[in-house]
C-alpha cells in the first residue's frame, strides 16, 4: 500500500462501504435533529409545526432529567468497576492450570450468550425476588429478613445484573491478554525477588493496560444505552430511581407519544456520549498507542 | 562466594526422565559452560539450579547451604534469559533497578548502583529508553545489567547469544568473558554452540540425554575426549571416525582423527580420496573427501593448498594425534 497507485485503488475499493456507513449514520441523526425542532406528538400527528428550542427546554426541565443523567453515569461506572476488577480476578484464576479447564472456561463465558431481557427476568424472578428468589432463601436460612432488591436498591440491582452479563466479555479479553504474557518475564521477576503481589503490580497490570482500555471503551459504548434490563425489572422506578437517559427517552417517546421531545432527548444523549468519550480517550486512550 | 554443588540431582517430567542423576561441583569464580545437543537437559539443569523448576530428587547446595527447597529469589543467583525477558513497559533505568527496588533498597543507593552498572555496560545514554527502542546487543547488556546490580553469588546464562547475529555474538562473547575477569563471580552458561563453550569456559560440562559425558577444561576435552560423543561434539569441523581394517590395525573398534590432524599431499599418502566439496575460508580450506575403502572424511588444510571438485588427494593421519575407541565407544588410552 505504498505507491500512489495502490493508495488510489484502495480508496476506491473502500468507498462503497464507507459511503454506506456514512448514510446509515447520517440519515437517522439528521432526522432526529429535524424532529427535535418540531412539535410532533403521535396523539395529534396532523398538527406538526416548528418548535424552536421548546423541546430541549421541555426535556431539560423534566424532573427526571438530571437524575437520569446521574443514573446513566452510575450504571456505566459501576458496571465498569465490577467487570474490570472481577474480570481480572477471574482471568487470573482461569490462567492457572486446573482440572476441566476447557469446561470451566465455557461456563464462565456463557452468561454473555443469554439475551439481556431473559437474563434480567431470571435475576428478577429467580434470584432477587423477595418471596422465592435464591437470595431471599439464603437470607431466610440465616434468619435474616429477605431484601426486596428492586424496591430498596433499584439502581444497584440493575448494575449487578448488567455487570453479570458483561463480566464474561471482560474476562475473555483479559484472559487472552494474560496468556500472551511472556513466561520468561514472569520467571525473571521471580528471580528478581518480586512476590506475587509485586509481579501483579509491576508486570501483569502494565501488560494488561491495553486490554483493559479496550474493555472500558467497548463496554462504555454499550452501557450508555442500557435499556432492556430496566424495562423488564424496575421499569425505571421506584419513582425515577432507576431511570437512565435511554429509558427516559423511551418513556417520552412511547409512553408520552412525544416524538419531538424524545428526539431532543436523543440529541442530548448523543452530546453526553461524546463528552464521556472525550474524557475517556483522554484518560485511557494513550494505552492504545503503544 | 559462589560455589554450587549438585548431589544426585534428578528431574522427571511426567513419564520422561530428563535428568536421571547428576553430581557436579562448580567452584567459586569459575566460568562453567553446559554444552550439548538440543534436548540434552542442559537448560533444565540450569533452571533447577535457579529454582525455576523443582528437583525430583537429590540436593542443590550453594556455598555449602542446602537450597533445594528455597525460592529462586532466596538463592542469591541472577539469570540472563534467552529472550532477555526485559520488562517492556519500564525504561532501561527501571529495568536495571527492579531487583533493587524489590529488595527495598534506599533510593540513593539504587541510583548509584544503576549508574555504575550502566557505565560498565556502556548504557549510560540509553537509561531513559524503553527496551523496544534498543538493538539486540543493547537489550542483552540491559539484561546483564539487571543481573549484576544484585551482586549475586553466581550468574546463570541461558543461551544468551542465540538471538544475535554472528558478528554481535563474537563481540558479546568477548564482553561476557571480560565481565567475568572483572567481577570474578561464578558464571554458569548454557549453550549448544561448542565454539562459545570452547572460547569462554574454564570448565566445560558436556551433557547428553541428561547425563554428564565429561567434565574438563576446553583443551582437555579437545585433546582427550573420554568417549565417541564428546569426541564428535567438541571440535569443528567434527572429528572423522574410521571403522574396519584401519581401526583394527590400531587395536581399536573405531579410530578418530580430527580434520586438522590429516596431512595432505598431491603425490603420495596412506589413503586416496576424491574431493566432493571444497570450502575455501581464506586462511583454511575444508575438504570433504570420498576416501577409497573408508568413506566420507573431512580434512582441514592450508588455504594455499589448491584443491577443487573432483581432484585426487592423498591423506596420511598423524598417528600421534589418533584417538582410539572400544566397542562401547569409550576411549582407549595408550
Protein architecture, described:
The complex is a heterodimer of chains A (290) and B (334). Chain A has helices spanning 4-36, 54-60, 65-94, 101-109, 116-127, 134-141, 149-152, 154-179, 183-191, 196-223, 228-232, 245-255, 259-284; strands at residues 38-39, 49-50. Chain A is mainly α and 290 residues long. In chain A, strands 1-2 form a two-stranded antiparallel sheet. The relative contact order of chain A is 0.14. Chain B has 334 residues and is an alpha+beta fold. Chain B has 2 domains: 4-231, Rossmann fold; 250-332, OB fold (Dihydrolipoamide Acetyltransferase, E2P), CATH 2.40.50.140. Chain B has a 6-stranded mixed beta sheet with strand order 6-7-8-3-9-10, with helices on both faces. In chain B, strands 13-17-14-15-16 form a 5-stranded antiparallel beta sheet, with no helix packed on it. A 4-stranded antiparallel beta sheet of chain B has the order 2-1-4-5, with helices on one face. In chain B, helix 5 (166-183) links the parallel strand 7 and strand 8 (186-191). Chain B is globular, with a radius of gyration of 24 Å. The two termini of chain B are 40 Å apart. Classes of the chains: A mainly alpha (290), B alpha+beta (334). The interface between A and B is medium-sized, with 17 and 23 residues.
CATH architecture of chain A: Orthogonal Bundle
What is the CATH superfamily of chain A? MetI-like
Radius of gyration of chain B: 24 Å
What strand line-up does the widest sheet of chain B have?
6-7-8-3-9-10
Helical proportion of chain A, percent range: over 70%
Strand content of chain A: under 5%
Helix and strand element order of chain B: EEEHEEEHHHEHEHEEHHEHEEEEEEEE
**Domains counted in the coordinates of chain B: how many?**
2
Q: Secondary structure elements and their pairing?
A:
The complex is a heterodimer of chains A (290) and B (334).
Chain A: H1 4-36, E1 38-39, E2 49-50, H2 54-60, H3 65-94, H4 101-109, H5 116-127, H6 134-141, H7 149-152, H8 154-179, H9 183-191, H10 196-223, H11 228-232, H12 245-255, H13 259-284
Chain B: E1 4-13, E2 16-26, E3 31-35, H1 42-50, E4 57-62, E5 65-66, E6 77-80, H2 92-102, H3 107-120, H4 136-148, E7 154-158, H5 166-183, E8 186-191, H6 194-200, E9 203-208, E10 211-216, H7 218-223, H8 228-233, E11 240-242, H9 245-249, E12 254-257, E13 262-265, E14 271-280, E15 284-291, E16 295-302, E17 312-317, E18 323-325, E19 331-332
Helix pairs in contact in B: 2-3, 2-4
